[in-house]
Please model this.
Amino acid sequence: MKKQLIELRVNGESCELAVEPQQTLLEVLREDLGLTGAKEACGTGECGACTVLIDGKPILSCLTLAIEAQGKEITTIEGLAKAGELHPLQKAFIQYGAIQCGYCTSGMILNAKSILDENPKPSRDEILKGLEGNLCRCTGYNKIIEAVMAASTGKD
Amino acid sequence: MEEGMRIPKFEYFRPSLIEDASSLLYKYKPEAKLLAGGTDLFVKMKKKQVLPRVVISLKGIHKLDKIEWDDKEGFKIGPLVTHEALVNHPMIREKFDFLSDACFKIGTRQVRNMGTLVGNLCNASPSSDASAPLLVLEAKLKLVHLYGERIIPLQEFFIGPFQTVLDPQEIVVEVQIPKLAPRTAGSYQYLHKASCVGETLVGAAVLLTMDPKGSTCQEARIGLSSVSSTPIRARAAERILKGKRLEEKIINEAAQVASDETQPRSRPWYRREMSRVLVERAILQAMEKIR
Model:
């Protein structure tokens, strides 16, 4: 299949690249742009490890065509820190030990960011429901929830 | 990434008019698939269950992501409207709260942001959550093809597990939901499997209309998903409620009859029992909402 030239906006920067239609956003982010924060685990939309934000909303990059992500604002975990300063959620995840193997972390943090952007003070239940599509096989859920709660209240 | 998790190659089209999408479908059927949210299609393609030579994306077509309200005709929901959009739509939350409850149950936050209501209906899973509420709302689907269109009740759309009457050259361009009669409310109750995606084990939707005095039931509709080869209406149970005062005995009887109308293939005893329990709960909650 012929490659097509597309333009993606990732973490505020535009880049042009040639892709085939069946290439997923996840493949292009990881293999063409070297942004390996988003992970592939199940590949079928159940685990949330490939979560990135498109126009601020969490989506599964393993089930999104790169070609269809044109003209949208894509945010990956690499785009969260500003001027060398970690995002409050990233700090909270470190502070609360909410990272074990780290494989689910980028998806967890990006989804949590979109939850807090929509509702800055979610209840514990709202966080649980919001993060239901992000699986952690280390089962560190309690610490993850605590970290998101802490980031939402702004406490260290 | 291992090859198995990649989407097989296809030719990609992104028409900007519905007519062009219809022409492409006409030209490439049955080798073509329509793309809306992609949450079902790409999983099936990765698993090599579906291998279209051509994928036609609907995303370039203007206004297909719109939810429109008309005072006479009710809602018209386009094929690119996501579950999340339905969950967040103020008028749907207000007038059809049990439909947004069902949409909130679907998938995960990420899946709801991608997956569309129409795509979910076209996938025709017997356990589709939105189907039960849409059946009791007597929703209709508008299907278009290159040379015309037809409007069919959702009830007639499903013909078996993952099977619909949709012709390979047709596109579902609209879900039509009629406005509600006064003194009407609905409820959606469900149980789900304890798995990571929480597929629905039994889903029960009830829509009730009470008479002006609020004592007698004028209209009753019961929809069930995941308990038959397609989502169904429990018509015999509905007849028990219509024209009656909704007292405990009548409600119990209707719930039992609804349960008898199901034909679950796996875990039949449990699914029947839960159908009875959930229909009863949905009737009580709908009554509570009308009060």
Remarks:
- Chain A touches chain B through 37 residues (CB under 8 Å).
- The beta strands of chain A are 4-10, 13-19, 51-54, 57-60, 73-75.
- Residues 88-153 of chain A form a domain with the DNA polymerase; domain 1 fold (CATH 1.10.150.120).
